[in-house]
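User: two proteins, same treatment. go.

Assistant:
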Amino acid sequence: MNSPSSSRPGRCAQCQRPLARCLCPLIPSIEAACPVLILQHHSEARHALNTARLAYLGLQGTALWVGEHFEDLEARLAQARQPVLLFPGPEANVVESVPQDEKPDLIVVPDGTWRKARLILHSNPALQELPRWLLPEGEVSRYRLRKAPDPQAVSTLEAIVRVMQIMEPGRDFSPLLRPFEHLIEEQIQAMGLDTYQRNYPTST
């Protein structure tokens, strides 16, 4: 499990973006509706669009673990009374509202491509014992720079924002998406609009 605060020369120690394009001024500090544990596949940690890190930085009460097999996971799950896994599956319950007495005290979120997220589940059998939550169908993902097999697939950050909003509908968690949207626009500008439209024709 790597430290989420590790950085590279010439990059911000927090958001890990190049210093000239640091996202930190756009990242809010919002109290989570429930503690969140993000299990990020190690291959995602240096991805240019690292939305798990944006969630970790902007949402108080979030932990970010990087790896594939997590030795401390069982101990962390044992500390929780009602942990849930935010990941689709045949026994997953669509979460549309959460009564106060049914609130979990830990939401575990695997982060990576579908294949890598499933590798995390396979490598950590304790996750397979958790009740699963599935987000209801909603808005199309704003993650316009990654092709997903399912039009309802969303980024890790978007999934976390949606589940927080479901748990506490009276609060606004949308500021967490500001750095994400800025980063996407920056990437589109860098590649050029023509190139973007050729590669992602259904995103415009």
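Protein 2:
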Amino acid sequence: MRSWLLKSLYVLAALRYPRIRPDLRYFVRDNYFARLNQLRFWRADFLTKTPYKVVEFYGEFDQEIRYAMPFAYWHFLNGTLKQTVASKNTRPFYFFSPDHVEKYEKRVWEAGYGNYSIPNMTHAPTYDFSKWARVPFKSHYQNDVFVYDKPLLVIANKYNIEWDKPPINFLDIPALDRLISGLKSRYQIVYNRPLGGQIVHDNSEIMDLGEHAWLRTTHPEVLLMNDLFDQHAATVQNFNHLQLLVYANCNHFISMHGGTAALASCFGGTNILLSHPGGGFEHEFNEYNNLFPNLSGATILHAKSREEVFTLVEGRF
């Protein structure tokens, strides 16, 4: 029955979206199936409405932000959330959960595929927001600790293997120098690139960009998230908690494709994100317009090259 239904939903995806590549229609099919799967919980969600739902996820951080956390928060608002289960150091993300369990030591990227327990679970041209609610990270974590004389601007960089290839979406040192030189007089810049051991990783190996020592020497005005973590170790739960506290006070972000961009999109303001064509399927499904702005109401500006990042920064920041 399940196999027949999946095949039928693939045909429906092909009929509805004939211009989408055949291999990408499987994503649409899976989202259709995941939404149909929610019919099983209609009575529990809308009639009895007692805490029963356990939302468990240990796949990619990007998917967790986009799909799992908003699904869990919807159940919290609905009065039906019983428990959340995720990777270690995720408790700050699930501050609303009545019982959060940090079960997994490592993320497994494949865990997001074939998982039909969440209505939106992978890439799609449209999303179902009926069981999806914005998590109010900004209002919950705003604070008077990370407040400076100038408005905050976070540069959320990364430098790791992407799709089993060398780094693609990142700012190298010359690009950072150009951006920081033009912005530091107007903004208090916080530079964020988590290192090994600070967050839970999946299969994307972190590589050495060598920029932290360079920043301390060349641009000492820039605050490094790694240094802030050392300075506030006694008062923050973990690195994720620190990121949430800093991001909550910020309205200007420059971020990179993936979880880095998704997290920066959860705090309103403006997020200029770098995502080169030919990588993730966000491009194919127009997700920087149909999904990312919904994470917080942020203005999402998609740069397809470093030069576009510079142009957008000059025009917006």
